Amino acid sequence: MDTILIIMIELTKKYKSGSALEILQEAILFGDIPEGISLTQNELAESLGTSRMPVREALIALEYQGLVKKHTNQHVNVAALTDNDIHAVFSDLAVLEFEVLKTFAEDELSVLSACMTQEEYHRTLCAKTEAPLRRRTLGTMTGVYLSFVLANAEDRGKLDAVFTNLQEAVKNPADPEILRACYAVYAEVLSLELLQIRKRRKENAELEAG
Description:
Layout (H helix, E strand, L loop, with lengths): L2 H12 L5 H11 L7 E2 L1 H8 L3 H13 L3 E3 L5 E3 L4 H19 L4 H8 L4 H10 L4 H21 L4 H15 L4 H33 L2
Antiparallel strand pairs: 1-3, 2-3
Helix pairs in contact: 1-3, 2-4, 3-4, 5-8, 5-10, 6-9, 7-8, 8-10, 9-10
């Protein structure tokens, strides 16, 4: 039996529900599917108990999200998520949100600073982003990577603390360098949290394997 089929059969025991895209997203972000593994529509459809169409659509979305790599020969492999890759995702998110905020009026900034949760903040900011490409890019970064971190963080205390500092900076946009610095810290904490999530997952898998 092929390696990916064995891996996916085991994963379906962990992921009791969800679409093909949701299952593959989480499995790759957790590190349950090792980087470089070749993914085929037939094997994924068989192991997930679905047809090839949702698997094909999932692979297209995953490529856009940077979680798989499609080659010229049509082969698809799980992308490497190195420490630098993970830091780059959240660093780019911080830079893009900072640039978007520079275009917001005072009343729009007030709406953001009043958001009660990180999820609400990023969702609102994305919805208010006028440039379509920026909005789509932010939607991917926040809807996939950031949402995964917020859903799986073991202790959100530090994340909440740096986010509070970020919101305070949004309330006082007179000095943009303070906001830029807050975003840099926020990006770093998000990056480290995702690395910890993946590390804990690997350690738990090793313990289970004996």
